[in-house]
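Reviewers of the previous submission asked for a worked example of the structure-prediction workflow described in the proposal, so we include one complete record here. The input consisted solely of the amino acid sequence. No template or homolog information was supplied to the procedure at any stage.
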Amino acid sequence: MSEKSWRKILVRTPPDSAETVAAWLTDLTGLGTEINDPAERRGPATVIGYLPDDHPELPEKLSAIADFLETLNASQPELDRSELLTESIPEEDWDRKWREGFKPFHLTPRFVIKPSWENYQVAPGETVIEMDPGQAFGTGLHSSTRLVVEMLEKLLPTLPNPPAAILDVGTGTGILAICAALLGGGLVTGIDIDPAAVSAARHNIAANYLDDRIGADTTALNDLHGPYNLILANIIHNTLVEMAPKLAELLAPDGLLMVAGILRGGQTENVKTRYAAQGLTCLAALESGEWAALCLRKG
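From that input alone, the workflow returned the following structure tokens.
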């Protein structure tokens, strides 16, 4: 049997972009990343991440990284270009290596994300979410994840009734589904095309004692019928545009759709326009750095 190997992903990027790239790469891979800053910030920083060489979606994920870097380069023409390099390396205790890079952190002032192997002293007003990413997207480090959770915190308490049926599209680790349930939502359905993500989501749902309120599986979006009072979709711009007719169909009258994974400016405006054509109006928008999230209402 051949030894398992990993794809080492190196992104050379301007120091000012390193944290953005690292957060995005962490959520894409579900593993820890590291940033090597140049001395006195002279020259590019290097962000390093890993994916298994036998990952079923390795080509798609590498393509997504390349697309992200192209978008990033276009959004900051005044800076040097970010570039992607990869190499295949043998496995050498990767479990220990990525665990070293994943520590407890505040997703929002209320929610704390804690890996199971770390200790954390809970402060008053905090809610701890036990989270083991495995090989799934969504540790909460990425700005798009934070923006959706902030929207949930702001908007759910203002609704006349909590959303009874919630759909989390591209659930990844299940982090958004878990937050929605903890904020008072009803039954939550998480779907993802990646079986590894569904496995991670189920593990995290159980670890937070939410099995009776959240389910996760690989059901295709087009096989769902709804209606859902709240839909969460933290994906990417192109996919959100393609999904617009189906997501609008699944949404209940007066239901809310929260979308993220889009860049400020052209991508945000394009998503607004696309969903307006489906009868959804923009209720709220949040921004963090170059990222944006929208809350859209049907009707």
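Residues 1-14+46-96 form one domain. We consider this example representative of the routine output the project will generate in years two and three.
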